[in-house]
Structures
1.
Amino acid sequence: MKEIFASTEAGLLGLAIFVALFSVVLVWVLRPGAKEQFKKFGDIPLKDE
């Protein structure tokens, strides 16, 4: 088990997965229609029900 976590290939694969996931999240957050959606989410605690 120790050899799996110490291998260079596993580290590079983990880094590649992290960069890909980070890029997807960044694109999702910065898409054109996201601003209105996040404004709606920000107003949720202020709604009186």
2.
Amino acid sequence: MKALKTVAVALGITLAALIVIPLIVLAGLFVWLKVTEEQEEDLLELDRDGA
């Protein structure tokens, strides 16, 4: 019975990791996109001012 419980816990942890890790990666990409987008907008504004 203890082995079955251990397998169930391991399976639960594995499934949670399969869901949580991609969500963390997507959140990181979203933040990176927002940061780089703001930097590009700043560069475009500087180009317009210089022209």
3.
Amino acid sequence: MQKALFALGLSAVAAVSFAGLAAADDRPATSAERANVGAVLKAAGYASWGKIEYDRDDRKFEVDNARHANGRVYDIDIRGGRIIKRELD
């Protein structure tokens, strides 16, 4: 019984550790990157947005809560100065 609980505890610690590593692949956008992403969003009709992060693995910017002029809110992915994905929030 104790061995099973110990193994379960190790599994939980490993899962949390791997989740932390995955999150470490994202970093906050620099001020220059935020300005570039903001220009792309404004050109596409977005009026405001939340957090902007750069995903190193997928080489894209992820924008949370981008509010379009139509009033809808999206999560946006941007790569190479273009919106590659938008998902209704």
